[in-house]
Amino acid sequence: MSVSRIGLISDTHNLVRPEALQWLAGCDAIIHAGDICAPHVLDALAQIAPVTAVRGNNDFGEWAAHLPVSTTLEVQRVKIHVVHDIADLQFDALADGVCVVVTGHSHKPQVEERDGVLFVNPGSAGPRRFKLPISAGMLTIEDDRAEAALHTLVA
Questions:
Q1: What's the structural domain count of the chain?
Q2: Number of Cβ within a 10 Å radius of residue 15
Q3: What is the reported pTM?
Q4: Cβ(114)–Cβ(94) under 8 Å?
């Protein structure tokens, strides 16, 4: 079975950082977990790989109307659920067969396994908020297994 690399990005808030584009280069797909704030962000990401995106609490207007609040996709039989704010998770991920939940909103990068489900927040790749890092993530899927790595884009 092949290896799939899924770039994870969130909370760009209208900013496309060259460091983010460099980190995501070569991935097979990109997930944006919301707070995109402008369509040019998705256009830039789509130059790298196909993009799955959800709407964040700062995504308004006609350009964002087509974005779902949450979505589920499957990569190599690994079910991935994406929602901007984990507080909006409407179901028991494990019971629904979801292996990975990707969120944003808090700007705090985190990878945590709970009850057999991998929860990943890539943090924020947008403007710095407080003293939180500028970051993104990568989900590597191989043989029905998913592993997540976080990467600091700007120290």
A1: 1
A2: 15
A3: 0.96
A4: no
pLDDT tens per residue, range 78-120: 999 999 999 998 878 777 889 999 999 999 999 999 989 999 9
Q: Give the CATH number for residue 44.
A: 3.60.21.10
Cβ count near 155 (within 10 Å): 5
Q: Which domain holds residue 47?
A: 3-154
Please give the Cα distance from 126 to 106 (Å, whole number): 12
- Report DSSP letters for 78-123, one per residue: EEEEEESSGGG--S-TTTTT--EEE--SS---EEEEETTEEEEE--
CB 56 within 8 Å of CB 82: no
Single-letter amino acid code for the residue at 130 = F
